[in-house]
From TrEMBL:
Record protein name field: Alkaline phosphatase D
The keyword Signal belongs to this UniProt entry's keyword annotation: yes
Entry superkingdom: Bacteria
Assigned EC number: 3.1.3.1
Amino acid sequence: MTALPRRSVLLGTLGAAVAGLVPATPGGEPAAVPRWFAGALRQATTPDPFTLGVASGDPSPDGMVLWTRLAPEPDAEDGRGGMPDRAVEVEWEVAEDERFARVVSRGTETATRELAHSVHAEPAGLAPGREYFYRFRTGGHLSPVARTRTAPAAGAAAASLTIATASCAKFGAGHFTAYRGMAADAPDLVLHLGDYFYETDRGEVRDPGPPEPKNLAGYRRTHAHQRSDDDLRAAHAVAPWVVVWDDHEVVNDWDGATPDRRRAAAQAYYEHMPLRRASVPDGPDMQLYRRLEWGSLATFHVLDTRQYRMRGSMLGADQERWLLRGLTDSAAGWDVLAQQVFFAPRRGGKSGTWGEFTGSRERVVRGWTEAGVRNAVVLTGDEHVHHANEIPGADDRIAGTELVTTSVTSGGDGDGDAKSGGSGSSVWSLDRRGYVLATFTPAQMRADFRTVSRISEPGATVRTAASFVVPDREPGLNKV
């Protein structure tokens, strides 16, 4: 019998886990439940609290964040998910295998009412550069099983890294087929670049969920409705995510984002994302810009282009200095700026992008050029259109590459007409829904622009519309 590819085996196991099943043995009998979880299924006397699935994020060489939120009634109008007022103990464990025969770490977290009974466990002491599996248990219930990984050791060589980038997932606008495609591609890492949900949604294709959130209960309900989607939960279960917000997680363009509304949006965002304790909100403020190293192969500078905007700077003075210092100190093969809005120069386009902060953009490009960054790549969301851009330097030579991912659903099915060249620095663009899959190696970066044939109907096909390669130390996009 022909062996199934690793990806198929993984997705089959995760699919069974999401369905709440115990994996079967090769003979078809249910696998034995490991001792630590003995009786977990038969002792349950309450509704399943793991309706929102599980997730992991922000991998380091010795760990990551493991997330879940207990919500047996995710659509409860008070935003508490049907949970009692008391705190609840939640156990977690990490294993080297999907059947949890080789458990390497376990612990207990206290899920409290104050944080919507969310869990943010941070296991440490794991081996670098390894794939792991994790799950949770509480009240006699087992969570789905999911896959995660650690980053390589600091400075260690890494043969390759495949990432998926996504943004702009309006629930009512269409089906999240792009997330299903991401799960099938099984990347090593997912970068979500903002607009994880939309605060307003007319529901052109399917039920948009609760009304516009304006308080904590409302934002919690909107997050919970977003996670009711099977494809989104599957994408979270296949790889660790690195997340940052844009505007719709608060309110469009942050117009009318009062301190109270920002406070509610920030708390709900933390409660529903695999973020470390360093990102616990301080009132209306939330620390989201951070740095992730992937051995000597790549450094990801995760930016927040919404929270700190000021006259003359897209990033604000402190974040801009932090970025420039990081670029100067970097010895990575690829320095990647993961951020929200269109970066490269162009004529026209959406408002509120780097084109309105040209001095800030010039300082960033000059910063990576003077620092001698080996390869500069900008990853961007927000646009609802795929773009492959070449970023000019001060002398008009190509200084870096920008990969703009289209939306997951926002904008409808799209027109499907690819454009070569065009406005400003764009080499290629396409108005279809989807995501970008990028693979980094020491020799090159390959970008595959993945598209969904339609989002107005479920079960659509996902394909690669165009691919580009950027060789090491040779900025510029080469179509393949």
